[in-house]
């Protein structure tokens, strides 16, 4: 068993909010997923050292950063825990180059892990070096912030919703670079987001945090079906994510056909070439169920599958898990569930409008 | 323009004013920045007491701080007696005393400007600097200080101007000694008390106005430069 990259057990009581959580992570890149107010940022602050927990222990790569039982408290600047903020926090009075050098120049030669040029090339920062942060786009800012954090040679890199303030177009400017960092730089990362899609763009490994506690962690496909996570599916904004292969495109009518397990899906048109694997999202609420295949209906996708789980959740909603070769979760009303008398192992068709399917990221 | 032919006395008053104001600015700079930063960023026991003490000269009649300085630092004063007898240092009735008097009066203005400027510096930037490996002192000098520079400059200009206008505390503490503590306001006051001194008083008034305008213009210039240095953004607007 590999040594855990990060191990912590911390408690912080703020009266109205209690964060009490422990986790042992062995995967190099993990997504920390939870709705707003779940304690994600607080947890990151505790790991980085900007927030002091009431008690606990934090061990990164075998190095103890915090142990309240033994009065160990490594100050922020000695932790070597990098933090990329949602709003980049670039120093406005310094050029991009000086921003990048800020942590780098504080390291002794032996502590430097990457050469300056390596990171500049990797993140394609060369053309930006002489600019000021206020001249950069949101995506560029985040790239610089990422480079700045990496150059400080962190043993753990925390990314606090680095794409939350970016629109889709800008996200596509930073995501490929995050992937590059993941693949080419051996720095363990925790990527925090309230959007499961964003995390899945980067990794399938995730931990789910809710109300200050880690509910589950592991592979996405395994943990979304655990009771604790599924019962929160709604508040977590859980969507179905499918990896599909494009097999046909029709630009004129604006659709694509993709293969998903044994089924064919009709998708909105995309620029990705045929043969590519893409990830698509289907919100659970956009899937309707039917006992029979329906003819003469505008809904193009009717995917057959077997009901593997049924759970009722708040607001008279029910979540039905269907095995269609991969797992789909459909959110229907409790009344529909009752009227249709859906039971485990029933055969049903999942009806999905083409336009209800979204692409995210660009799969490799 | 015979009217603007200044006498050596008047020039002396002008130069003394500038000298005292410059030294007052220098003297308030470091304590002003430190106390301003302390009040903006730190929580500690006695914070409100420090806050009140620093601000007292702003709300008291200037004669009061002047008189307190006399009690403290005068040649018969609590500290002044010891300074005078053991070290031979005497600030009473000297221009150094005038600097001390105006520094005490100017400090609250400096502290207020710095505190406001530091509060406006995003503490997230300081946190970012710390995660990048900078210790507290380094963060202060590389992030907090440069980003609050326009505010600090404002504070220094205010201190300079306050010193130029200082009257009550100065005359109470160091008197009105020609060539030593008779700054412009004291000289104007002196002339208005003299029969036939009106013309001279008026000339000094004009001189004061010119000096004030130059100071304001210089401050505007410096502040613009500082803002440009920070990337066209006013960090505390």
Would you mind describing this structure in some detail?
Chain A is an alpha+beta fold. Chain A has helices spanning 40-48, 96-104, 116-122, 138-151, 168-184, 196-200, 220-223, 227-230, 233-236, 334-340; strands at 6-13, 18-25, 29-33, 55-60, 63-67, 72-73, 81-84, 156-160, 189-193, 205-210, 213-219, 239-250, 255-260, 263-268, 277-283, 288-290, 301-313, 317-323, 327-333, 347-352, 358-360. In chain A, strands 7-8-9-3-10-11 form a 6-stranded mixed sheet, sandwiched between helices. In chain A, strands 2-1-4-5-6 form a 5-stranded antiparallel sheet, with helices on one face. A 5-stranded antiparallel sheet of chain A has the order 14-13-12-15-21. Chain A is globular. Chain B is mostly helical and 237 residues long. Chain B has helices spanning 8-41, 47-59, 63-73, 80-87, 95-120, 123-131, 136-147, 149-165, 168-174, 184-193, 198-229. The N and C termini of chain B lie far apart (44 Å). Chain A binds chain B through residues 48-50, 75-83, 85, 87, 89, 91-93, 102-103, 106-107, 132-134, 148-149, 152, and chain B through 122, 124-125, 127-135, 138, 142-143, 146-147, 229-233, 235.
List the helices and strands and how they pair.
The complex is a heterodimer of chains A (364) and B (237).
Chain A: E1 6-13, E2 18-25, E3 29-33, H1 40-48, E4 55-60, E5 63-67, E6 72-73, E7 81-84, H2 96-104, H3 116-122, H4 138-151, E8 156-160, H5 168-184, E9 189-193, H6 196-200, E10 205-210, E11 213-219, H7 220-223, H8 227-230, H9 233-236, E12 239-250, E13 255-260, E14 263-268, E15 277-283, E16 288-290, E17 301-313, E18 317-323, E19 327-333, H10 334-340, E20 347-352, E21 358-360
Parallel strand pairs in A: 3-9, 3-10, 7-8, 8-9
Antiparallel strand pairs in A: 1-2, 1-4, 4-5, 5-6, 10-11, 12-13, 12-15, 13-14, 15-21, 16-20, 17-18, 17-20, 18-19
Helix pairs in contact in A: 2-4, 4-5
Chain B: H1 8-41, H2 47-59, H3 63-73, H4 80-87, H5 95-120, H6 123-131, H7 136-147, H8 149-165, H9 168-174, H10 184-193, H11 198-229
Helix pairs in contact in B: 1-5, 1-8, 2-5, 3-9, 5-8, 5-9, 6-7, 8-11, 10-11
